[in-house]
Amino acid sequence: MADVWTEKLDTYLDGELSASEMRELDAHLRTCPDCAAEVLSRLQLKRALQSAAKRYTANADFRNRLRRQIASPQQRTPIRLWLAAAAALAVIVVIGLLAISLRQQQMAGQHIFREIADLHVATLASSNPVDVISTDRHTVKPWFQGKIPFSFNLPELQNSEFTLVGGRVTYLDQTPGAELIYQIRKHQISVFIFPERALPESLTSGVQRRDTFNVESWREQGLQYFVIGDAGSDDIGNLANLLKKAAT
Amino acid sequence: MEVADQRVTVATFEELAMPLFDQLYNFAHWLTQDRAEAEDLVQETYAKALKGFSSFQLGTNFRAWMYRILRNTFLTSRTGLKATAMVPIDSEDAPELPAPTGTPETVLIEKSQQQLLQQVLEVLPVHFREILLLCEVEEMSYQEIADTLSIPIGTVMSRLSRARKALRASLQQKLVRT
User: Fold this and answer.
1) Nearest C-alpha in A relative to B20
2) Is residue B42 part of a domain?
3) Measured between CB atoms, which of A95, A211, A234 is closest to B4?
4) Is B58 on the interface with A (CB under 8 A)?
5) Is there a domain that residue B99 lies in?
6) How far apart are CA B24 and CA A99, in angstroms?
7) Which of A34, A69, B105, B123 maximizes the CB count within 10 A of its CB?
8) B38/A69 Cβ within 8 A
9) DSSP state at residue B58
């Protein structure tokens, strides 16, 4: 067994080696049966540990108690509440309306994020995830011409860990848009681009976690971008930055 | 507007935090090794997080933030102090444990591996146990683990490597004995 590699096998399995080391070790594993066997056995331990350690489940009672605890803001004392209610009655109507409209906007945003997550999952589950298969942005971008009512720029990926897998046309609220599939390590990331007029205003920026996915969304030159995947928030953020840079 | 803002914040906290509930509970139970204490720990974590949610920056890693709160709460609890008292937390400079010879993993497959692994994990020092859980169960990246434990990424790698060696060594021991 090559000693230089033994220390790195776990890091390799964690997917945390640099891209070049990853490739080197991949190549090495193909020629070194000892290392390959060691990787296999460590992988088995990793899997076994993963399932063995998912051991404890909370009581349903406790879960409900906790949910109630964080769902309701702290109660004021009845008298203060009554006074506050009396004094602020007129204001509350206004605030209530504001809150409802804010909430509605937020719900609309959430609805969009849920749709985006569904589209992403549908792509992952599809046996033909992409309509145009290419790692070359100069092939993928022109392919969309005439298929969607806008155009966009794609980033150069040569010095990053991301690879472009391909693209497809997709729809959100009956508006056509572009979906691009990228890969980093073993994670698939979808990038959705739609004209912004099809969408509500209140889509927040920054990487967020939704339904186990990380999502970042932003607007640029009349287009709304979504980057979504189960990759870490750093990866999602990095890809988003590459796209933002390419768009300007 | 204050009331309206607050409502939005509360809704968002619940939406962000509840999906992590099962994982956080599992983690808390592994740390405390006791159901009642785990419940207390999770409850306190959520209370603190809700209170401090306004200081949390959207866009940064919420999961790491929650785990950090849970862990800090645990470390300052009585059980936490006891669990860490015996092991210096930063023993990264200490000489590495000798690597176990042979591969216990291969033998393990035939044994009742689940139970065995759980027993071994239970008795590992708490800072080994927690980093293994974060890496293997939560599948956090090294950067996320570094954020959660508030240690540099180099320390994540060395501690993880030592934790794995310790795990394999005690597995080896168990297998020899049974």
Assistant:
1) A212
2) yes
3) A95
4) yes
5) no
6) 31
7) B105
8) no
9) B
Tell me the pTM.
Answer: 0.53
| Assigned token pair, A155 | 């980033």
Q: Which residues fall within 8 angstroms of residue A132, CB to CB, at 6 or more apart?
A: A139, A140, A143, A166, A167, A168
Which residue does chain A place closest to B114, by CA atoms? A52
pLDDT, averaged per 10 consecutive residues of chain B (178 residues), comes to: 47 83 94 93 93 80 92 86 62 49 53 80 93 93 93 94 93 80
CB contact under 8 A, B43 and A56: no
| Cβ–Cβ below 8 Å for B11 and A234 | no
Please tell me which of the candidates A62, A67, A212 has its beta carbon nearest to residue B18: A67
B81 and B108 belong to one structural domain: no
A111 Cα to chain B: minimum distance (Å): 13
- The DSSP secondary structure of B36-56, one letter per residue, reads HHHHHHHHHHHHHHHHTGGGS
Domain boundary among B37, B57, B85: B85
- Please indicate whether, in this complex, the C-beta atoms of A234 and B141 are within 8 angstroms of each other: yes
What is the Cα–Cα distance from A99 to B7, expressed in whole angstroms? Answer: 8
**CATH code for the domain of B10:** 1.10.1740.10
Nearest CA in chain A to B144: A232
Q: What is the ipTM of this complex?
A: 0.76
Give A216's contacts in chain B (Cβ within 8 Å).
59
> How far apart are the CA of B172 and the nearest CA of chain A, in angstroms?
12
Q: What is the DSSP letter of B125?
A: -
**Domain ranges, residue B18:** 2-85
Asked if B118 lies within 8 A of A95 by C-beta distance, the reply is no
Helix ranges restricted to H, B33-152: 35-51, 62-75, 78-85, 104-108, 113-123, 126-132, 142-149
pLDDT per residue as tens digits for the range A147-157 = 888 888 888 88
User: Nearest chain B Cα to A69, which residue?
Assistant: B47
Residues B60 and B134 in one domain: no
